Amino acid sequence: MNPEKLSVPKVLRNLEEFSQCQDLQDHSYFYFDQNSINPYKEIEPNWDETRRISDPIHQFIELPKSIWRIVDTEEYQRLRYIKQLGMTGFVFNGANHTRFEHCLGVAHLSWTYLDKIAMNHQYKFEQMGLKDADHFDQIKLLVTIAGLCHDLGHGPFSHMFDNILLPRLGEKKWKHEEGSCMMLRSILLSEEKDFMTNLVTYKNAKLNPKEDIEVILDMIEGLTLSQWKDKYEEKKQYPKWVFDIVSNKTTSIDVDKLDYLKRDPSCLNVKHEFDYNILFNETRIIDGEICYNSKIHDTIYDIFHIRYKLFKHIYLHRVTQAIELMLCDALEKANPVFNFLETIKSPQRYLRLTDSIIEIILGSEDCELAESQQLLKRIFTRKIYKFVGEIVIDQQKDLTESQVLDGISRNNQYRPSFSCSSTKLNDFERKNTIVTFSKINYCMKDQDPVNNCYFFKSSQPFEKKKLPAQNSSLLRPQKFGEQIIRVFVKENDEVLINKVKNGFALYTQKELHTETGAYDKKDHQKTPNKSEPQKKFKLSSPQYENNENTNQKQMNIIINDGSQYQLNTKTLFQNDD
Fold first, then answer.
1. Choosing from 176, 272, 297, 524, which is the catalytic residue?
2. Burial code of 72-107, b = ≥16 C-beta within 10 A, e = fewer?
3. Among residues 472, 302, 500, 297, which one has the least CA distance to residue 390?
4. Confidence (pTM)
5. Residues 6 or more apart from 396 whose CB is under 8 A from it?
6. What are the tens digits of pLDDT across the range 182-202?
């Protein structure tokens, strides 16, 4: 093909539009050359430089071949044995995807997002705060590695490990990002793997493990503006926006979130997916910040609202939460054997800590694991902790488990007829009652996340500005978070369940001024049995009785078995006025 015959538009937003030309059906590759009259020259694709795999969400994931050397390590392959959604698979059958697929997806989106940003700037790298194409390739390589390795440090069953189990054991500060840093150092700085000699490369960009590892770790954790100024502003090698791709501490819009917002609903067959291409196509870099076209501000709200719904209905499902509490109890009782607090400090020991710990415990003959085995067997036989009730309150309201248990004990009025014991909860009953606190928000606590975003107009693509809340929408949320308090009982003890249910309901009504939401199968109407004959209704001849007090009428209804009922006609017919 002769490139000179091509009709190339002066302003080309992206290569997808260009590839629709009839002359380009052979899928040739093009690159941007500012010194050429025709900026897109045909080049031969080098298939040896990349490796491609299929993916159920992104169709294909294609990355430089040398990057896959990181994937082909024990530390990375460990992610195959850690489920993305923990124990959610006990409720949603499709929730069996792992951190391995998710991390590859984040690497793919990191690579794709940077390409899109460059296209949106027509490869004018100085507009992005970069020197040239080589500088861009170096940034793209490091950001992609950060996306690839951002979840290396997850423990068994993902967030349950660092959010619930470790705080119970006394470690409240450790997060999986620290584990990711530890495991990445184990990969890149290992003499055995020899990444110093066999470098990870892409075009003219090379990964120097000793020099670049701290930059990659900062990309994994994300930096605030003040942190970036302290570490990188004077160097002028790494603009602020490169630390906002994988983990964005400013707006919380990052490729980590974009992958699981698409992957999780798809695997669970839940229709809450988000199309990240809308965001990618409308992103520019202005004054070192990621900015979005003002016309997609509603789409940004969609990101946070979809995340909220996933937390509300899936990640924090009451049955999933009950099972996670049981699993945590089992692992807590097994801690003397496994010593989790020491394990998280050792890459060699942490390498073997995966979801398979359940099979290890169940198959062990160690008498110290007997209690843990009993709890795990209860999970598999569905004898799980009983959910009593929940309330939704303001996320700013601080309550503790002790305060809620005191309130339940103080307000309970239930006492079984065969017992003369106190209505208050005794120590045993308190020990067998669990209170959980879950805060769900738009990632910025009680703030509107869109207020932290920069926008630009299509007519002014080089000017960034904040979007005033009153100008964005009259239907924007007024609150951006909530707190769910749930109560569970460990044993299927009807007396304890009724005491806790009664006390919790009265406590929330009298002291918290809200109503509990409880799920009780006994309160639900029984599904009609098809084998039972259904009663047929017939209306009697119009016989109405006036109610002088309310000016309403009563209609007599006769059922075929002879029973007679009276219904208020106002409940049957609505006034269209």
1. 176
2. ebebbebbebbbbbbbbbbbbeebebbbbbbbbbbb
3. 500
4. 0.81
5. 446
6. 999 999 988 777 776 677 888
